[in-house]
Amino acid sequence: MPLDLSGLVPVVEELLLQDTIRISTASGGARVFNPATGEYEYEQPDVVYEGIGAIISAYTNDVAASTPDSVLPWVSETRSRYRLMTPLAAPVARKDMIVEVVAVHAGGDLSLLERKWRVQDPAVAGTLGVVRTTMLDQITQPREA
To answer: In a 3-state reduction of DSSP, which class is residue 45?
Structure first.
């Protein structure tokens, strides 16, 4: 008899997925003329999902990227690994989509509202999943010269 975890799904969603998450396509590409403003603007990204979810740190020992040669400069980016958790019914985020938290639960970490993450790979798949897990990398601002 196969193991059925469907009864756990609502419990896990209620306990874990407490914030509101937005997944959208990356903005950019060609600029288009906006007749209302009279200026050229980048197209707005398409929202793929907006609903319950959670962002969880996934730090490991290799979070900092550095150049292995002492005469070369440091690499300017670090890896800020996180996991996105969404309901199984949510669409699978594609590589390079943008994730942001648009609302946090009462008592939640308000600094989540100021950050964005890039999807590293499509969601992890498994036989016994109760939530969808997607690996993220935090988008950091480039250093000013």
So the answer is: coil
User: SS in 3 state form for 53-80?
Assistant: EEEEECCCCCCCCCCCCCCCCCCCCCCC
Q: Could you give the 3-state DSSP secondary structure of residue 6?
A: coil
- To the nearest 10°, the Cα dihedral for 17, 19, 22, 26? -90
pLDDT at 74 over 90: no
As a whole number, mean pLDDT of residues 20-44 equals: 85
Among candidates 91, 11, 106, which has minimal Cα distance to 50?
91
Characterize the bridge pairing of strands 116-119 and 39-43.
Answer: unpaired
Sign of the Cα pseudo-torsion (103, 6, 97, 44, in order): negative
* pTM of the entire predicted model: 0.76
Residue 127 pLDDT exceeds 80: no
Smallest CA-to-CA distance from 98 within 138, 51, 52, 144 is with 138
Q: Which of 57, 104, 103 is nearest to 83 (CA)?
A: 57
